[in-house]
Amino acid sequence: MRVMARLGVDVKERLFGRTALYFAAITDKNTIIMLLISARVSVDVKTENTGCTPLYIAALRGHEAIVKIMIKARASLTETEQNELTPEAIARMKRYHAIASLLEGGGS
């Protein structure tokens, strides 16, 4: 993160309404997620156009490790996107049963 700061990279900046945390969640980049969380970015920041959180995106894509990291970072399990779906609801719709169970039990 220090290297990024020295280069003038703002990890909270948005590109097309999405943050670095969003892009790390959608591409399943565990290490980047952990670095961003350690830099204290908001884990519940929503996309500007659809209102998706990084946890929602990880659940949508079936990225179980990212979901676990986000739960441990205390991401909201109840935030909804524009269609009022929670991360658990989208995981169930996509038949990612293990992820849905994690979200239902709050990570336990």
Mind explaining what this structure looks like?
This protein is 49% helix and 0% strand. It is mainly α and 108 residues long. The protein has a single domain, classed as Serine Threonine Protein Phosphatase 5, Tetratricopeptide repeat (Alpha Horseshoe). Helix 2 (20-26) packs antiparallel against helix 3 and helix 4 runs antiparallel to helix 5 (64-72). The protein starts with a helix and ends with a helix.
Largest sheet: none
Report the CATH C-level class: Mainly Alpha
| Helical segment count | 7
How many strand elements? 0
Structural class: mainly alpha
Q: Would you give the CATH topology?
A: Serine Threonine Protein Phosphatase 5, Tetratricopeptide repeat
Shape: globular
Which CATH architecture is right?
Alpha Horseshoe
Order of helices and strands: HHHHHHH
Share of residues in helices:
40-55%
